[in-house]
Write a structure and sequence with these properties.
single chain; about 75% helix; elongated
């Protein structure tokens, strides 16, 4: 039987995950990813404690973590690509 806290975790992780994945503000995305990952981790622990056989939710949690990791790496790649390239016109070796 779920406690109120576990029930909140059931929906909270999904809401935080959606906010992170669908968020468009690049200044907030890392914070949203971290919040979602924490909520997912709490839900994983709750699912393990319940000991149920809810394979669909376990898969959804694992898939969500993978998607957040991918979003983080894509964001980091974009940030590196956005850095201005230094040109060294005076040194032909560069």
């Amino acid at each position: 039987m779920n406690t109120d806290d576990e029930e909140v975790n059931l929906t909270a992780w999904r809401q935080l995950y959606q906010a992170a994945v669908l968020g468009l503000d690049p200044t907030k995305i890392q914070d949203r990813i971290e919040e979602a990952e924490k909520a997912i981790a709490k839900r994983v622990i709750a699912v393990m404690r319940e000991g149920g056989d809810d394979r669909a939710e376990r898969e959804a949690l694992a898939n969500a973590m993978q998607a957040l990791d991918l979003k983080r790496h894509l964001g980091e790649s974009r940030n590196r690509g956005a850095e201005p390239q230094k040109e060294n016109l005076g040194d032909p070796k560069v």
